[in-house]
Batch of 2 targets.
Target 1
Amino acid sequence: MTAGAGAATGVDGSGDGNGGGNGKGRGDRTGPGESSVYENARLQFECAADLMKLDPDIRRILSATTNEIVVNFPVRMDNGRVKIFTGYRIQHNGILGPFKGGIRYHPAVDLDEVRALATWMTWKCALADIPFGGATGGVQVDPAEYSINEIERLSRRFTVALGANIGPDYDIVAPDVNTNPQIMAWILDAYLCTVPPHERQRSRRVVTGKPVESGGSAGRAKATGQGIVRMVEMWAREHGVDPGGLAYMVQGFGNVGAHAAFLMERAGARLTAVQDVSGAIANPDGIDPEELAKHARRNGGHVRGYPGASPIDDLTFFSTAADVFIPAALENQINHRTAPLLKVKVVAEGANGPTDPAGDRILQQKGIDVLPDVACNAGGVIVSYFEWLQNKRGERWDLDEVDGRLRKRMERSYCRVRETATTYRTDWRTAAYIVALERLQTVYKERGIFP
Ligand code: GLU
């Protein structure tokens, strides 16, 4: 079995993967004439920094990443030959606490993408008010091309290559696109082999998103999806709409997209179209997400060929009439080509960076609301924080406790962003950034710059 059909996909709800089976919707992340993801992240930051008049020194600090680790490391393939892979860990900012963020396996992983993802993690943690900084890592690899054993060796060797650049109170890793609890268990195991025996117990929290039996938290697998659905419910209530009457479409049917769909279904909403790397499908009468997940599991993680819906092309997918669009795949999916097609009322960003600046402008012109990624998909890192806390305190929280605490934090973020958008008369993305930047600015002002 290739990893793409099993271990390295998030389709069974086991990965964090803000992505589909192979972690993406269709469409390249960057096409001709499209800006880099890091450039997009920078433009979003500058827009918020201008509006809130961020202190120029703090602005300079937050414009740069703190550490950029690039490792080339060898992995023995099943055929006996050695292959060299390139891995990254970018630590954007650690003023609020240890660096925190996922590890992505994808052929498009590069310095530009990981810088952007790490920067977004800083804003996400600050906005969620959890004591973590921002980081992200990744390996440039298409896991579908490798066996599970090769992916295990790659994961372990990447961990050893990162060495002391990660640590339980220094930089804590988690799943992202195409990585999952099994891969987190391998990373943890390899890491623990590198620390002295008496430090192993307290070091387990170097990884979150672990399998529950290996110290993971109840509710972590569905956390990102759950946070998204909570924000959609808040949005619906505010607009006088019954969440049970919503029609929605999802891009990417990995851990995030699938769990969001399961929970939307439970709220009574109707899934009308889904797109992943294999193609797009639609059924105006509704697609059963559980049945679709079963189909995807049998089908290499892909939605194509699901008998309960008709195949549609990508343009038709984006033109589907629905109330809510949940992009849960890769960056830059809502752009100058696709944004004009959208007929939804709100975009709930499950992926990181799914909307580029041109897409954002078009959504604004069309009056489509955006629940921005740094707020909307924070459920994953919030429950990662709960997992880290449980490990640190030697506790185990039950699902009700995790769900209740997550819900409260998502509601708090939603309200903070809404208030800030009103105060500054701005869009929700900029408002979310301002909430995060105000927190960071306060701490920098309190602590000052050494020496
Ligand atoms: N990869 C997820 C994200 O982008 C989760 C990160 C974490 O749990 O640390 O938010």
Target 2
Amino acid sequence: MTVTDLESYEDALSVYDPVMGLEVHVELGTKTKMFCGCSTTLGADPNSQTCPTCLGLPGSLPVVNAIGIESAIKIGLALNCEIATWCRFARKNYFYPDMPKNFQTSQYDEPIAFNGYLDVVLEDGETFRVEIERAHMEEDTGKSLHVGGATGRIHGASHSLLDYNRAGIPLIEIVTKPIEGAGARAPEVAKAYVAELRELIKALEVSEARMEQGQMRCDVNLSLRPHGREKFGTRSETKNVNSLRSVERAARYEIMRHAAVLNSGGTIVQETRHFHEEDGSTTAGRIKDNAEDYRYFPEPDLVPIAPAREWVEELRAGLPELPRVRRDRLKSEWGISDHEMQSVLNAGAIDLITATIDEGAPSDQARKWWMGELARASNETGKELADLGVTPAQVARVTALVAEGSLNDKLARQVLEGVLAGEGGPDEVVEKRGLKVVSDEGALGAAVDQAIAANAAVADKIRGGNLAAAGALIGAVMKLTRGQADAKRVRELVLEKLGVQG
Ligand code: ADP
Ligand code: MG
Ligand code: ZN
């Protein structure tokens, strides 16, 4: 990797305005591929999910996947797009070893959905409208695995392996219009847009949109133009950025790099770039082909798509509650601030919390455990909350045990710790670790007596009216019961035994 000159972010923005374009590819969660009946299940043996059509063998013919079309229309509608009354697939011709047909079946000048927008909420609560140029249908390519080199890249590899299981899996590509006017917040807008889009896709249940698994990937186009200039600068296109944080970093890096090149009198070449997770940098890929180099032409083997208006309206009426509306509703139901809701979203906890509430937990308790103890565990292990191995039902059970008084917060934390460690469900952990609030009044009374005897001076202070000193005795009782007492009840007992009014 070569060291690249960068302008400071502030200096770059004092001279230039960034213009961005985001292209997001979403792999649909259909059972079968876009143009054949092959399965799309992940993790199968290489090339076990292929057929003459997705291998591009002579004489094979594609048949379009109806769920693929339906999903594309749903996405278009949710993005406030117009839905084409008539559109076609097109062949995008280029050679690449992981694309066995030698062309990608895509859409070109006749996308299924166009002219929409998505409103995204920034961290300060302000709404920014990102305009959508188009959402079109296409298919994924296979995967190449370069073997024998140190980096997994083709350079230095002794040979390459090809797996066509992914070839032909339906993709929806969503392309924004140029995003102008975001200024220094351009990277934040990029991240917020991809985050909002991901929520939308998940709400529509057309894909799980897991970025870390490549089910959703973003190309970040970016150019700079001097303040006051109308004409766009030349863009770079950072490909396949696959986390929200990386989208933000890639945009930021490109702003600093473009500014350094332009300030030194250089010119930006229109090229693709690779993003590097380790240091947030980008490096040059290939010089970008023009559309004419792809020799796009209408796909002769597939009939045009003309979705009936009644069908489109039926799909529109059947759209689920969209993420923004749902967020606003939950925010008021839970009685939390914008800022608190933002933390819930950042933690990816909204569905887990709602599921925990559905299992019977009060909303403040559900939020407290997911955003507290479990968020901490997620930070420590680097795992997503959803992948920690604790279910909403288990968290709800813990809150129920606290509510009925068999656990206090401290014990509840230990129970969750046990569940996280794979010791079983909450009741099992309580059983195995012997975690239960000592609710046996006799045992508790004995512990209080013992603490008073051992701390005679403190007891005298309390008798003399210094109620603040009670903390020390309560602490002593908690120690004697290994934390397994209800602190409120202990306080009552201490005061009662010392003959003071609480
Ligand atoms: P390509 O097929 O070359 O990637 P697309 O039109 O599919 O082209 O996508 C280009 C993306 O970049 C779009 O989101 C578009 O709005 C955006 N864009 C176009 N020109 C510029 C520019 N000069 N600077 C920044 N973004 C741009
Ligand atoms: Mg592109
Ligand atoms: Zn197939």
